[in-house]
Design goal:
The chain is of the alpha+beta class. The longest helix has 16 residues, at 145-160. The two termini are 14 Å apart. It has 7 helices and 7 strands. Strand 4 (72-79) and strand 5 form a beta hairpin.
């Protein structure tokens, strides 16, 4: 079945990295779904995605993310009828990392940056591509993956509802830390070919 194939390829059978700092430099495979999987973004026609007005907005604001976060690099992405797939890379300079570390004492005791000696490199990190609720300790952290995604969703919602009042996102999202080049190319090809495989897609 398509869903099993998707899980075998993109969902790692392991626990999430509870100590992973989602402000860290790494490439992340992100999936955002609309509420109840509603087709707000358009439809697939002849295996190609035809964007609606709301879909065009979602595309526009996705491409603008690096304008607001200079350390963000965008890779392959696709706007589908009811979800978005994309690869986001956090690539902070040494100065930006040092600045982040200098503010660490501002974070609550329930959140601690992992020990560098035990923290896996982004290329080897393993976390399941599972739907998750952002931990409270990470929701408000500036420049974290969660804060970036939340801001993107908020911007889309405000503007989409000007013409489509019922527009809404699913509250949570899916993320996966891309571990190596093999995983990167597999995921990138999956994203690019998503419209062609729409009928088999787990999110359709």
């Amino acid at each position: 079945m398509a869903s099993k194939k998707y899980k075998n390829k993109y969902r790692i059978a392991s626990t999430r990295l509870p100590y992973w700092d989602y402000r860290s430099n790494a490439s992340y495979f992100i999936t955002l779904c609309t509420v109840d999987r509603e087709h707000f973004f358009g439809e697939i026609t002849n295996r190609k995605m035809e964007l609606s007005e709301t879909g065009l907005l979602a595309e526009k604001y996705w491409l603008e993310i690096p304008e607001h976060y200079r350390f963000i690099q965008l890779d392959a992405h696709i706007i589908m009828p009811n979800h978005i797939h994309g690869i986001i890379t956090i690539s902070k300079s040494a100065e930006e990392i040092a600045s982040s570390q200098s503010k660490e004492n501002q974070y609550p005791s329930t959140y601690r940056r992992p020990n560098r000696a035990t923290q896996p490199s982004p290329a080897r990190a393993s976390t399941p591509n599972k739907e998750r609720t952002i931990p409270a300790s990470q929701k408000w952290q500036p420049n974290s993956l969660g804060s970036i995604i939340n801001q993107y969703k908020r911007t889309c919602t405000i503007n989409a509802r000007k013409t489509l009042p019922q527009f809404a996102w699913q509250p949570r999202y899916y993320d996966h830390i891309i571990r190596n080049k093999t995983a990167y190319w597999r995921i990138k090809n999956y994203i690019i070919n998503n419209p062609k495989n729409w009928k088999k897609d787990i999110f359709s």
